[in-house]
């Protein structure tokens, strides 16, 4: 299992290629993160059509006098697979909360993981204060902690949808099996629904049941566009570089494997 | 004071992350022992997160009851159920006791199964309401979905062996390949977030949405 | 008058379409469960992969059965778990390590062991050990794969691991022959990350239907040796081990429900195109 000994350090075989790829990808992201942080280069990300859909939906909520419902998902901020999803959902919540408060639409946020609750409360409360309406924020009512259990959260959230009859239902972040139930309930109460998740198992349900869906990394890109932090945009740009490198590797690997050339397989097995 | 704690947390996070990364690649006994300990600590801390959920629920529902907000009788029911479950575990000194299992199998299991089973009904209404061939891409998606459904259910093979075979082609060629592309993108996104957290550029895990 | 009545009836039906659909689905699921049709169940290669691998196990091999079963997914995944556990219990000399990744999973694991009379058929501590719930998600799995004895000192029943004869020879993932993870969440990837990638331990999954597309990518790449796909996979496995159970009984209902979904899609699209044509006129 040992690849070799270098300066008294033994590298484990099968992990050198992993290390090389991680270093290359991380370097690409790091370079643009630092450039963005120092305001040397702030990459331009195109405005996602979904953001226009959010603006229109909030306008609809104002006209109808109905609230905006928002769910940032059921994954915690420390989840190994979906932390990025939750982080993007919270960034978009910041935008939605400010927009809704500015235009005068009430917002209700349903939270599942207890680790997300203080962050969501902070974001929404700050939005009310920033927009000069601190008295409209109701502690425990505007941001509602429903349940850390998936189905407890689902029951609570669909209860909110049935009682409050929102004009807009935003489902961003990691949603699991409850995605279809919540989305269909939202459709039954007549809400315009905008969703986004990197949970690939639930994307088909969102695409079917919602009016607009951010697919996978679209959510990250939208969050980066809306975030005032330029480092997010820098990292998105670095991610695109990493994806280009990945695509080249896949293409070269596929061509070489087709012709029976094993060199890529051997290099990636180092 | 907050700033010092934040800085300390950032430094600890960086050191721990680098330790685990290096341990993954390098064979070194001392490093392996440290990484194993860090792993154990992470497991213990994760166990405490369960308690955090219970605490958050209790505080919220006690507040609802004290203010007699809308739905406060349900909050009493929730706290009552939680208390009964906790006490049963403490009194029987076991989560494997018959009493504990009885509460689980008569209350939690049917409710959770019912909620999950509702998916079938909602998918049915969505099939009628939303699966429309508005354009050729949607039509292609519908056709693929129908063949895959016939592949998954035994009835497809009974009607004709060709139907599940076509479904398998859609499944292997379009489903698996598309999934790989999405998984690569999501994996790179997760790496990006990890990098931002390790370099203290992502504030949310350290308890602050804004500085 | 008659056209007004007809209009209001169609309007009423249009508004109550959800209730009608739910009623149709309830009927289509209930009738085959009460009166089975007996449709044949074809066996897929993904299920055969798991079956053949377990069939080829030899005395001394260690099978890790990891479970994330909860009440919600139990209807899909528990029949798979029971079928595979029964198969492994039939293999003489094969050691079974039962690990749980959710708070509810230990209850289901014990339920399965009692249902299959495992405590009477085999010797606890020598033939199988139930570790119990390991918190921490991926870090918990990493700990098990790295050094199980440093992570856990006692098993689910409170016995010290050092007292259990089977655990004397099991330290880390290199001692596991195969891992089969029963889950509906991202936890299955954790076993790939922590057992297969670093140690080369062979992994298979038992999954709910919605997670299968993700797993197929790993299967076609050769990173996992099999997938038990939802209730269908459980039915196939029950037939393979010649122990038909609740999964096999549910296949008829699943088939009829699938036909109903296809019918609803077709009817919905017909109505959509007809109303589109009428609007154009």
Per-chain topology:
The complex is a heterotrimer of chains A (270), B (211) and C (281).
Chain A: E1 2-6, E2 9-12, H1 16-37, H2 49-64, E3 68-71, H3 83-103, E4 107-111, H4 117-130, E5 143-145, H5 150-164, E6 168-172, H6 178-188, E7 192-197, H7 203-209, E8 212-215, H8 217-226, H9 230-258, H10 263-268
Parallel strand pairs in A: 3-4, 3-6, 4-5, 6-7, 7-8
Antiparallel strand pairs in A: 1-2
Chain B: H1 2-25, E1 26-27, H2 29-67, H3 72-92, H4 98-129, H5 136-152, H6 154-159, H7 162-198
Helix pairs in contact in B: 1-2, 2-3, 5-7
Chain C: H1 2-15, H2 17-34, H3 45-55, E1 62-67, H4 74-89, E2 95-100, H5 105-115, H6 118-121, E3 128-133, H7 138-151, E4 178-183, H8 187-199, E5 202-207, H9 212-220, E6 227-229, H10 230-240, H11 246-280
Parallel strand pairs in C: 1-2, 1-4, 2-3, 4-5, 5-6
Mean pLDDT of chain C: 89
What topology, given as strand order, has the largest sheet of chain C? 3-2-1-4-5-6
| Molecular shape of chain B | extended
N-to-C SSE string of chain B, H for helix and E for strand: HEHHHHHH
CATH class placement of chain C: Alpha Beta
**Distance between the first and last residues' Cα of chain C:** 25 Å
What's the CATH topology name of chain C? Rossmann fold
Computed over alpha carbons, the radius of gyration of chain B is 26 Å
Order of helices and strands of chain C: HHHEHEHHEHEHEHEHH
Q: Major β-sheet of chain C, in short? A: 6 strands, parallel
From the helix content, strand content and strand pairing of chain C, which structural class follows? alpha/beta
* Helix proportion range of chain B: over 70%
The tally of strands of chain C reads 6
Strand content of chain B: under 5%
Q: pLDDT under 50 segments of chain B (min length 5)?
A: none
Q: Would you identify the CATH architecture of chain C?
A: 3-Layer(aba) Sandwich
What are the low-pLDDT stretches of chain C, counting only 5+ consecutive residues below 50? Answer: 1-7
Would you tell me the overall average pLDDT of chain B? 83
Count of individual helical segments of chain B: 7
Q: Describe it for me?
A:
The complex is a heterotrimer of chains A (270), B (211) and C (281). Chain A is α/β, with parallel strands linked by helices and 270 residues long. Chain A folds into two domains: 2-41 and 230-268; 49-226, 3-Layer(aba) Sandwich (Rossmann fold). Chain A has ten helices and eight strands. Chain A is elongated. The N and C termini of chain A lie close together (11 Å). The model of chain A has no long low-confidence stretch (mean pLDDT 88). Chain B is mostly helical and 211 residues long. Chain B starts with a helix and ends in a 13-residue tail after the last helix. The mean pLDDT of chain B is 83. In chain B, helix 1 (2-25) crosses helix 2 (29-67), helix 2 crosses helix 3 and helix 5 crosses helix 7. Helix content of chain B is 83%, strand content 1%. Chain B has two domains: 1-93, no CATH class; 131-211, no CATH class. Chain B has seven helices and one strand. Chain C is α/β, with parallel strands linked by helices. Chain C has one domain: Rossmann fold. Chain C has helices at 2-15, 17-34, 45-55, 74-89, 105-115, 118-121, 138-151, 187-199, 212-220, 230-240, 246-280; strands at 62-67, 95-100, 128-133, 178-183, 202-207, 227-229. In chain C, helix 4 crosses helix 5, helix 4 (74-89) packs parallel to helix 10 and helix 10 (230-240) packs antiparallel against helix 11. Chain C is elongated. Chain C starts with a helix and ends with a helix. The chains are: A alpha/beta (270), B mainly alpha (211), C alpha/beta (281). The interface between B and C is large, with 58 and 63 residues. Strand 2 (9-12) of chain A pairs antiparallel with strand 1 (26-27) of chain B.
């Amino acid at each position: 299992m040992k690849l070799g000994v270098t300066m008294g350090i033994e590298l484990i075989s099968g992990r050198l290629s992993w290390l090389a790829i991680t270093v290359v990808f991380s370097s690409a992201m790091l370079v643009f993160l630092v450039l963005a942080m120092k305001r040397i280069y702030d990459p331009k990300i195109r405005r996602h059509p979904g953001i226009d859909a959010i603006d229109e939906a909030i306008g609809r909520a104002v006209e109808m006098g109905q609230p905006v419902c928002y769910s940032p998902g059921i994954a915690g901020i420390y989840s190994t697979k979906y932390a990025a999803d939750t982080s993007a959902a919270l960034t978009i919540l910041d935008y939605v909360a400010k927009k809704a408060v500015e235009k005068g639409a009430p917002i209700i946020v349903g939270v599942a993981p207890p680790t997300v609750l203080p962050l969501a409360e902070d974001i929404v409360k700050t939005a009310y204060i920033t927009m000069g309406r601190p008295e409209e924020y109701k502690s425990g009512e505007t941001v509602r902690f429903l349940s850390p259990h998936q189905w407890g959260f689902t029951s609570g959230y669909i209860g909110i949808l049935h009682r409050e009859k929102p004009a807009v239902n935003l489902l961003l972040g990691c949603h699991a099996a409850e995605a279809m139930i919540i989305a269909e309930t939202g459709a039954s109460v007549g809400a315009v629904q905008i969703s986004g998740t990197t949970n690939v198992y639930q994307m088909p349900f969102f695409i079917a049941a919602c009016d607009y869906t951010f697919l996978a990394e679209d959510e990250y890109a939208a969050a980066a566009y809306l975030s005032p932090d330029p480092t997010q945009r820098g990292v998105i740009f670095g991610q695109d570089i990493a994806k280009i490198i990945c695509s080249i590797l896949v293409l070269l690997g596929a061509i070489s494997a087709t012709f029976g050339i094993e060199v890529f397989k051997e290099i990636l097995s180092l | 004071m907050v700033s010092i704690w934040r800085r300390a947390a950032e430094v600890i996070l960086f050191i721990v992350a680098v330790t685990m990364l290096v341990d993954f690649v390098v064979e070194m006994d001392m490093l392996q022992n440290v990484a194993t300990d860090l792993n154990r600590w992470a497991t213990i801390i994760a166990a405490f997160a369960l308690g955090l959920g219970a605490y958050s629920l209790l505080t919220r529902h006690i507040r609802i009851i004290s203010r007699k907000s809308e739905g406060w009788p349900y909050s009493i029911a929730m706290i009552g159920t939680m208390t009964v479950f906790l006490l049963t575990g403490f009194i029987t000194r076991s989560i494997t006791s018959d009493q504990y299992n009885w509460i689980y199998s008569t209350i939690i299991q049917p409710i959770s199964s019912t909620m999950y089973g509702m998916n079938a009904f909602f998918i049915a209404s969505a099939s009628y309401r939303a699966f429309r061939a508005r354009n050729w891409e949607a039509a292609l998606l519908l056709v693929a979905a129908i063949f895959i459904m016939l592949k998954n259910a035994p009835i497809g093979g009974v009607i004709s062996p060709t139907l599940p075979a076509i479904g398998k082609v859609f499944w292997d060629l379009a489903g698996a390949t598309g999934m790989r592309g999405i998984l690569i993108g999501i994996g790179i996104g997760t790496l990006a977030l990890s990098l931002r957290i390790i370099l203290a550029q992502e504030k949310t895990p350290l308890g602050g949405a804004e500085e | 008058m008659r056209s007004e009545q007809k209009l209001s009836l169609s309007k009423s039906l249009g508004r109550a379409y959800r209730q009608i659909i739910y009623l149709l689905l309830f009927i289509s699921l209930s009738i085959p469960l009460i009166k089975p049709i007996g449709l044949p169940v074809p066996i897929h290669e993904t299920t055969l992969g798991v079956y053949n691998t377990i069939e080829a196990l030899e005395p001394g091999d260690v099978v890790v059965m990891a479970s994330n079963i909860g009440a919600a997914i139990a209807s899909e995944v528990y029949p798979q778990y029971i079928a595979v556990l029964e198969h492994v219990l039939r293999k003489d000399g094969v050691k079974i390590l039962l690990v749980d990744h959710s708070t509810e999973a230990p209850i289901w694991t014990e339920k399965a062991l009692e249902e299959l009379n495992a405590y009477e058929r085999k010797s606890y501590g020598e033939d199988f050990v139930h570790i119990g719930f390991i918190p921490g998600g991926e870090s918990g799995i990493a700990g098990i794969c790295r050094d199980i004895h440093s992570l856990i000192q006692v098993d689910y029943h409170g016995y010290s691991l050092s007292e259990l004869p089977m655990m004397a020879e099991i330290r880390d993932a290199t001692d596991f022959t195969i891992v089969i993870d029963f889950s509906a969440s991202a936890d299955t990837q954790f076993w790939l990350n922590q057992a297969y990638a670093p140690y080369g331990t062979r992994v298979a999954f038992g999954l709910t239907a919605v997670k299968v597309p993700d797993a197929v990518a790993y299967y076609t790449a050769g990173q996992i040796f099999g997938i038990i796909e939802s209730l269908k996979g459980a039915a196939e496995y029950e037939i393979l081990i010649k122990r038909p159970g609740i999964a096999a009984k549910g296949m008829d209902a699943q088939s009829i429900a699938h036909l109903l979904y296809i019918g609803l899609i077709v009817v919905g699209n017909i109505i959509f195109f007809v109303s589109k044509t009428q609007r154009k006129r």
